[in-house]
Amino acid sequence: MLNNDRLLVQILLLGLLGAGLWVMAPFISALLWGAILAYASWPLMRLLTRLFGGRETLAAGFLTSLWILLVALPLVWMGFNLADHVRDVTVFVRDVQVDGLPEAPEWLGAVPLVGERLVRFWDTLDQQGAALLTTAKPYLGQVGNWLLARSAQIGSGILEVTLSLVFVFFFYRDGPRLAAFVLRLLDRLIGERAEYYLGLVAGTVQRVVNGVIGTAAAQALLALIGFLIAGVPGALVLGLVTFLLSLIPMGPPLVWIPATAWLVWKGDYGMAVFLGVWGTFIISGVDNVLKPYLISRGGNLPLVIVLLGVFGGLLAFGFIGLFIGPTLLAIAYSLLLDWSRTETVSPDK
Which helix (H) or strand (E) holds 235? Predict the structure, then answer.
């Protein structure tokens, strides 16, 4: 009878656990990113706690507000700007359909050897533009619907990032108590190696966050400086886009190369050369040097794990998966690698 009562209690506890996970499911990705961000920036939280005389709630509120100013507000601002640019593109397409393309720029005819041919090609496009747009008109609605769906995904991702910054306040404030609870739970599950595995996970999180997100932030800052010096409009938006694209290999050139081409289009060749050199050796150079060093420091973590984590996280969690995916995959890789080594060594003991 006692065993039956114990089994009933265990079933009830499992049911409650499943119900709790079901309730929390919509917030899992935001909770994960909040926990990752809180741990990665925990040294800063400790410093602020000392500066505020040990008042953890005040330090947590200050640091959370700082993250909102640095991350959430620029992302919201970028979302509104992207909406404006989409509207501008729509107006441009309508104007081209009515009035045709504008006259070819003067520099196009001055291109050595092929300048005249390029101007004739431009005029041909202008003459055929209305016919091409008429042919493409049935597909423009599909493209518009696709862009609308992607915009909705980006908007929900920005909302999720903002929600994770709300959660991070509680991780800051209750961090030590949460860490002690997790350690006790792991101790019940895996025994004496719980503290070791917790340290392994913590080190992996620190490396990935520093390597992936730290490098992306550095590239975005350098890109912003280059865009401001070159006089490229929308420099802040382009810097934020550089930050997002820095999470994938060869992402930043998708921003600074079109910006360089725009400068050439405007005839500002000096700044175009500057931005091309700055993008090649400074913006992209940081990715080739800083990211492998930060990720590999303290452990041999293949960069392919980060790449798979970025794309897999994007498919699994949406926008916020760009940050969660590499971290989770790196943790799984580190734990499996350590487990395989332990299993290999244990028979000799």
Answer: helix 235-245
Amino acid code (one letter) for 249 = P
DSSP 23-45: HHGGGHHHHHHHHHHHHHTHHHH
Q: Residue 328 and residue 315: Cα distance in Å, rounded? A: 14
- Domain boundaries in the chain? 27-173, 201-344
Sign of CA dihedral 183, 189, 191, 195: negative
Distance of CA 239 to CAs 83, 222, 344, Å?
A: 17, 8, 47
pLDDT tens for 86-109 read: 666 666 666 655 555 666 666 666
Contact 54, 45 (CB under 8 A): no
Determine contact, residues 326/337, Cβ cutoff 8 Å: no
Residue whose pair of structure tokens reads 């609605």 in the numeric block:
141
Q: Which of 316, 335, 333, 337 is nearest to 325 (CA)?
A: 316
In the 8-state DSSP scheme, what is residue 210?
I
Quick: pLDDT tens for 45-62.
888 888 988 888 898 899
Q: Which residues contact 151 (CB under 8 A, 6 or more apart)?
A: 82, 83, 86
Query: In this structure, are residues 168 and 67 in contact, taking their beta carbons and an 8 Å threshold?
Result: yes
Query: Which residues, including other chains, have CB under 8 Å from residue 146's CB and lie 6 or more apart?
Result: none
Euclidean distance between CA atoms 55 and 49, whole angstroms:
6
- How far apart CA 104 and CA 109 sit, in angstroms, is 8
pTM given for the model: 0.62
Q: At what angle do helices 253-265 and 269-278 cross, to 10 degrees?
A: 170
Token readout for 114 is 């092929």
